Amino acid sequence: MLMHNPPHPGEIIRELCIEPLGLSITEAADALGVSRKTLSAILNGRAGISPEMAIRLSIAFNTSSESWLNQQSQFDLWNAEKHRAELHVKRLVAA
Fold first, then answer.
1. φ and ψ at residue 61, rounded to 5 degrees
2. Considering the entire predicted model, what is its pTM?
3. Per the domain annotation, does 59 fall within a domain?
4. Domain that holds residue 62
């Protein structure tokens, strides 16, 4: 079952991981081993969580990489479902 309007994982990272630790984006990016630009794109919802980033986040914040990928998947699927009616797909059924 899909979560109702799930937040982008970047919001979760900012609000539950970075802000409570009092980190700047630059400090968090350095700790994750990524550029500030890369982390900023994720935090601002312009980029998603890749499997590699999920692993980096799991190491840095002692979480599971699967949880980060699941959040991204829920967010992506929710947004795709909003455009379901625009898809031109024929139903295929066995005779």
1. -110, 10
2. 0.88
3. yes
4. 9-86
